[in-house]
Amino acid sequence: MTRAAGEPAPAGATRRGDSIHxxxxxxxxxxxxxxxxxxxxxxxxxxxxNGRHIVPNEADLSRPWRVVEHTPEPEPADQAIPIVAGxxxxxxxxxxxxxxxxxxxxxxxxxxxxxxxxLLEQETALRERVEEVELMHRLxxxxxxxxxxxxxxxxxxxxxxxxxxLDAGSVVLFTEMEExxxxxxxxxxxxxxxxxxxxxxxxxxxxPLSRGRLFDRLVLSGEVVEVPDLPADPRVxxxxxxxxxxxxSFLSAGLVxxxxxxxxxxxxxxSPRTFTDQEKRLLRSVAEHSAVAVEQARLLALREExxxxxxxxxxxxxxQRRMMPAALPEAPGYEFAARYIPSEVVGGDFYxxxxxxxxxxxxxxxxxxxxxxxxxxxxxVRGSLRAFADSGRRTVxxxxxxxxxxxCRDTLQNEFATLWxxxxxxxxxxxxxxxxxxxxxxxxxxxxxxxRVLDAGGMVVGVEPTHFYDSAEVxxxxxxxxxxxxxxxxxxxxxxxxxxxxARLIEAVQRAVRSxxxxxxxxxxxHVFWSIRQFAGxxxxxxxxTLMVVRVGED
Length: 555
What we know:
Number of strands: 22
Distance between the termini: 126 Å
Low-confidence stretches: 1-14, 177-187
Helix content: 25-40%
Radius of gyration: 42 Å
Largest sheet: 6 strands, antiparallel
Strand order of the largest sheet: 1-4-3-2-6-5
CATH superfamily of the largest domain: PPM-type phosphatase domain
Strand content: 15-25%
Oligomer: single chain
């Protein structure tokens, strides 16, 4: 009985490359054996790994060789030399004994087997390299096409199992918050991302495969772990569990990105199996490529999240801008100006100047921190103050006291704000104010001298609900200039890490007030910020900056 070339691989060939059949193309090796037989006056036969004779197929040129199923076993006097591909015997050259054979026939057959083995070794290495390149190209193309790390991991697992001719496997990753150096108990926090050919009982069992999670520790430190026989390996914690799952051999490699372990490949065979160095390198390459894919996908996700956050911040900034006065009020005998510069897209400083119930209300404040959290808290403080001041009957200290109690009720222990709140009676030219731990504003006379530091009040709001706040009253004179600001201005640093400071700020206001002709409130603000730029240079601000100026008209 014969078997033609091109038909399914014969029994016993478990992997591609296990049989001489996988390397034969045009039948020339079988014909060479026939030619040598004639020259040596003895039969020289090509056998497959199961001992079956491979002969030229003269009857069908489309199938240039065929297998003789019932081939006599070599006799003790016969010479049988193995043909090796990698670490596997894929066939044999058999020289049948003949008294007519020349003495050099035995050596010739040995040399031929060596040459064939060398060619098969080269062919095997080339095939494995081509498979590796094709696999890497396929996975890379998939990542570019989808950008989805989970899809890449599933395809990587499927391809690794197929190329390595294995039966099952899984891919596990650390959660991003738990990626640390190997050495702790982090292997317990690996999360399943892809699997094939394994039961849920095996996949979700809390019992590790190896004692002390040795296999995980080895692969996450950069090694490739090979176990030819799981049930017989003393490092396996529960061999019976592997038997029930039908797993015999094990191959594992870590997903390591720039020295940082992020997960592992775990592959299994259901029959005894040893792995070549090339196969181990292939799995390591797949794992390294997958690690890059995971990190790239995470980076893309972070960028998308950042873009989403930037859109949200832009919306929040727009809302915050609308909460600041769109236009400052006009009042005979008074001039108002203000400028607010957040250190981020949104900030925690706030100010307000409104005419209400026959008076002018001035407000400036600073919430602890900056960014979105500070902006939300700023909106809460500003809204509370406006609500409590809306009746027009409460004094400044009563309004600040109510804001303080509301903040103590609605905020966390480490959340607080400073503020300075004042009422101006425009006809009587009297200012009554209350400071809640805020940087004290300064009242300057028309000649630039400091008339008064406006520091009466109490502690910051949001800390002690029973705190009692004081207030004070001051007469406003013609030409007076009131300057209120947040600590972002005084704490602005230059490249020598020296702060601009309160003294420099007051000096900048004084220089502006004393200039000729008399400056407007807006020109005073412009001069102060120009002085800060001269002091700090291009050093960026680390806190929100707010400046408010009220100038009293001359009689």
